[in-house]
Amino acid sequence: MVDTKQPEALAVIGIFLGVSTLFIVLRICARVISWQNEGRFDTLMMWSDGFLLVAYVLAVGEAYAIIRYTLYTWQGYHVADIPKMSIDDQITGQKYNLANQLLYNPILSLVKMSVVFLLLRIGEAKPAAKKALWFTLVLNMLLAIAIFFADAFQCTPFRYVYDYPAMDLAAQQAAGANSSGQVNGVTIKGGQCINQINFFLISAGLAVGTDLLVLAIPTVIVWDLKMTRRKKIIAAGILSVGAIVTAVSVARLVIYHWRFSAKNKDRSYGLGYTISCVEINLAIATACVPPLKPLVRRIAPKLLGSANRSGPGYRHTPYDNDAQFELGAKMTGWKGSQHRVEAWSSNEQILAEPEKIRRTTNVELTFGEATSSDGKHS
After folding, report:
1. What are the residue boundaries of the structural domains of the chain, listed by start?
2. What is the distance between the alpha carbons of residues 84 and 67, in angstroms, rounded to a whole number?
3. pLDDT tens-digit map of 252-288
4. How far apart are CA 371 and CA 112, in angstroms?
5. Where are the transmembrane segments (predicted)?
6. pLDDT tens digits, residue range 205-242?
7. pTM
8. Neighbouring-strand partners of residue 377
């Protein structure tokens, strides 16, 4: 019996596509619940949802392409066990391989754009964080465009990237090459390509760099919020769950370095090439996590420590709702801004609405008089 890992490779592709599908469905459910509660969609969240849905659709296409590549090129089999493939099958397999390459970076870029728009809504009150997010967004877009076109035109002529079996054969026959495709010890080729190994490794490294930027900013935003340290850590952890994807990205660098190494004489045997599919689907799944709070509160209201505002022991504050805030202002004669104070002022709220986090304004209200944060009377 021939030793093969192809069934395991196909299972990995299917399982991780299923994971991203599940989280996309959960995010849609959460957004429906949020709309039912609020009756409107925030513009930034709509952009975030849109980018993620496009990324998911492309991920489905990427999964199909990598499955077809697996089957056409006998991935998972030892090189010695692969039967001689026809030129047409080789070309078809390489077309699916190119499709996989071209889809990989745009998917990750769209996921990062989705996360950045979510963070823009959270960190809009902090100018430094807002500027950092816009810088990350622009950098991510420019890298996505540059890498896409470099990938698409990595060979000259363009079609040589997938049509090289036929083009090499034609060039060798025209040059009168021997059975090894050589003339005077030089291998004849029908085209030329950039150093593909270095290109893949450099582009993967740049992707990890933007991952780290997206991971660092939420911590800065959350740490500026007026919450206990424990809750800051929890909130930062929820918003930085994408660290899992960064770890997979680093693993992909190591795996691809070995996959394209000259020492690797059995490149088709193994599961390493599926790491791209694992990475993009995990990226989509983790990007869905922060906005799931409305769904979690509907299913398990006590899971994240939601406050029971009508239960015993709850201490009402002037910040519980807009009406009480306005009432407190009227009673004290305070004529400052009546901008809504968010639920972050309550110690019983932990990431109640992740997409609605705002930096708490340092304003103290009393029923005798109102004072600003610097202690001066209004």
Report:
1. 6-154+194-298, 322-371
2. 20
3. 888 888 888 888 888 899 888 999 999 999 999 999 9
4. 42
5. 12-30, 51-71, 102-120, 132-150, 199-221, 233-258, 270-292
6. 888 888 888 888 777 777 766 677 777 777 777 777 77
7. 0.76
8. 371
